[in-house]
Amino acid sequence: MKRPYSYIAGTGHAVPARVVTNDDIAAMGLETNDAWIIERTGIRQRHIAAPGESLTSLCAEASRQAMAKAGVQPGEIDTIICGTASPDHLLPSQAVEVQTALGCSRAAAFDVASACSGWLYGAIVGDSMIASGAADTVLVIGAEKLSAIVDWTDRNTCILFADGAGATVLRRAKGEKKDRGILSTFMRSDGALAELLWRPAGGGAEPYSADAATGKRHFIHMAGREVFKHAVRSMAEATDRALDTARITAADVDLLIPHQANIRIIEATAKHAGISMEKVFVNVDRFGNTSAASIPIALNDAMEQGRVKEGSTVLFAAFGAGFTWGSLVVRF
Ligand code: UT7
Questions:
Q1: pLDDT at residue 105, as a whole number
Q2: Which of 3, 111, 199, 329 is most buried per CB count within 10 Å?
Q3: What angle in degrees, to the nearest 10, is found between the helix axes of 263-273 and 34-41?
Q4: Taking the complete model, does pTM exceed 0.90, yes or no?
Q5: Measured from the CB, is residue 155 less than 6 Å from ligand 1?
């Protein structure tokens, strides 16, 4: 197969200013504590939106950074893809709100609903659009305001999930960039297991109602232990498939950037892939699990720390509700 078609020309991220520590959550009256959360998840703190702080504003800030680094003007963006499970509005898409905020008047804009795999799925769609000739420049965002759809009395979920946005600009690989970019892609889903991590109410099947509010069925419900097992298994498949398709081995990987769900899932993924933890990027301790935003936030964080340089080969792996999972190998 002819590759690469596209490369990552710029990255950015934005998180709310408000930091919520594990002690802050315990102080809300939940039966939990800092030591348990750190040991079982690796999370020390997360960023949570202030009242009235919109997802659109986080997306726009992350996107402006990514576009500035890519040297791309709003009018040059052909497509905006936003991976999210917690948009500001259910209709229309989060992506069109971002389009308006950025002034990308030429773009087609739409959301990708694949939960924590949202940015990765979006990047694969964007790469495919560039490969087909449908677009030259695609803004791919992963963004969540999960604090709005989390039950703050459920210690199984509210300790994990957090808010933030990450953005990347994908551009057509040409000229001297021809050997840089997305070297392989892999994506997979299994809807049979949807109810292990879902929002039972709020959609057409069970519209939001006062009863739903009492039962809290419009919040995220998660069977944590079951999800954990599937996450480990699926992330292992994802890393295997990305390396095979790119025809490289773990030794060729300079950095693994996995979805930041839980440090124990990250460690299991690295161990399976045969990649030492020194070559794994971890920021779940500072940001918690920001679902679709976690990988693009981690990528921008890694770039700012100098851990991704020109020529670096980076393996990305994601897993989320659906279930959905996937991976990418990118040479920078
Ligand atoms: O983003 C992609 C999708 N999401 C994920 O990948 C998340 C996957 N799941 C997880 O990360 C973990 O399952 C959790 C962090 C949610 C839970 O950790 P765990 O080690 O699987 O805990 P558990 O659910 O098996 O519970 C162990 C014990 C239980 O007590 P008993 O029954 O042993 O007495 C829980 O009631 O820990 C208790 N527990 C807690 N204790 C203090 C559960 N949550 C908490 C808590 N604080 N927040």
A1: 97
A2: 329
A3: 20
A4: yes
A5: yes
| 224 CB near ligand 1 (under 6 Å) | yes
In the reported structure, the alpha carbon of residue 124 is separated from the centroid of ligand 1 by a whole-number distance in angstroms of 32
- Which candidate, 205, 1, 202, places its Cα nearest to that of 86? 202
Q: Which fold has domain 6-177?
A: Peroxisomal Thiolase; Chain A, domain 1 (3.40.47)
Ramachandran assignment for 291, one of left (phi > 0), alpha (psi -120 to 50 degrees), beta (any other): left
Rounded to whole angstroms, what are the CA distances from 174 to 7, 73, 131, 171, 310?
Answer: 9, 19, 12, 9, 16
Helix 94-102 with 55-70: angle, nearest 10 deg: 60
Q: How many residues does the chain have?
A: 332
Least Cα distance to 170 among 133, 132, 123 occurs for: 123
Ordered by start, the domain boundaries in the chain are: 6-177, 181-204+215-331
Look up 230 and say whether it is catalytic. no
From 28, 44, 159, 228, give the residue whose CB has the most ligand 1 atoms within 8 Å, as the site to mutate: 228
Q: What is the mean pLDDT of each run of 10 residues along the chain (332 residues)?
A: 88 98 97 97 98 97 98 98 98 98 98 98 98 98 98 96 98 81 97 97 90 86 97 97 95 98 98 98 98 98 97 98 98 96
C-alpha to C-alpha distances, 182 to 21, 31, 143, nearest whole angstrom: 36, 44, 21
13, 259, 262, 300: the active-site residue: 259
At the fourth CATH level, the homologous superfamily of domain 181-204+215-331 is Thiolase/Chalcone synthase (3.40.47.10)
